[in-house]
Design goal:
The protein is α/β, with parallel strands linked by helices and 234 residues long. Helices cover 40% and strands 21% of the residues. Helix 2 links the parallel strand 2 and strand 3. The chain binds NADP nicotinamide-adenine-dinucleotide phosphate (NAP).
Length: 234
């Protein structure tokens, strides 16, 4: 399979990319940082893309799919920014919605016609438990992830007759560099966080399922949800 994946430089996207390559798929990663995201594998290539620069994304993707087709797009890129809404600048709000939500719409604007033309294609998005229930300090992140979930539901309806499947995975806490910038992180014991490899395995399972079946939304949580807060957070 020829697979396009965002967020291939880190966390869930990186683990997924490695598993896909081990399964002999051909993978093109999308990343801001070419050096960080480079993987030494003959079936791996990279396209530099900043999902905050939407016009540029649209242009680069259009040019990429002019020369080649893909069977699947996996959208892993995203980041968390948590706090009360008045703590964010307009620029911070704009960027979080762009990267976590609008980028999915912009990339699909190019990919869906290609999949429609092929009469097949898989779209897999990483949502969040914050797409299901919003909580304290999650206004900005949940706004984007709820939006992404709504987008996936509508897209699924729009595309199913054209052989396209749309899956949304909503994980709880995943142990990844996502928490490097946060004042909190899952507690150390294994039952408090999902591993990135487990999400990657789930993605690979979706790819092996018949295209007549849609795994529409999959929610997964760590068994326990203990969180460590850094001393200065309230
Ligand atoms: N970790 C969790 O607990 C958790 C739980 C639920 C959902 N999620 C979701 O899972 C997805 C992956 O997160 P992760 O845990 O794997 O975090 P991660 O290790 O921090 O990876 C985030 C990825 O997103 C990319 N990215 C961020 N901003 C970007 C931008 N402007 N343009 C292009 N790429 C950008 C990063 O690329 P660079 O290398 O360029 O920074 C990186 O590859 C995100 O959508 C996140 O919201 C995470």
């Amino acid at each position: 399979m020829k697979i396009l994946i965002s967020g291939s430089s880190s966390g869930i996207g990186l683990s997924t990319t490695k598993q896909l390559l081990a399964m002999n798929h051909e993978v093109t990663g999308l990343s801001r940082q070419l050096e960080k995201a480079q993987l030494d594998h003959p079936n791996f290539s990279l396209l530099q893309l900043d999902l905050n620069e939407l016009e540029d994304c649209d242009r680069k993707l259009k040019s990429l799919i002019k020369d080649q087709t893909f069977d699947c797009f996996i959208h892993c890129a995203g980041y968390g920014h948590f706090g009360s809404i008045e703590q964010f600048s307009v620029a911070q709000i704009d960027q979080a919605i762009r990267v976590n939500l609008t980028s999915a719409l912009v990339l699909c604007r190019q990919l869906v016609p290609m999949f429609r033309h092929q009469k097949q294609g898989r779209l897999i998005f990483i949502g969040s438990e914050s797409a299901l229930n919003a909580g304290k300090k999650g206004a900005l992140y949940s706004a984007a992830k709820f939006g992404l979930r709504g987008f996936c539901q509508a897209l699924r309806e729009d595309c199913s007759k054209d052989g396209i499947t749309v899956s949304l995975i909503n994980p709880g806490m995943v142990r990844s560099p996502f928490f490097d910038e946060q004042p909190f992180a899952p507690a150390d014991q294994s039952e408090n966080a999902i591993e990135t490899e487990d999400v990657a395995k789930l993605i690979c399972q979706i790819l092996q399922t018949s295209t007549d079946i849609v795994m529409d939304e999959i929610n997964l949580s760590p068994r326990v949800k203990s969180i460590n807060f850094s001393p200065q957070s309230s």
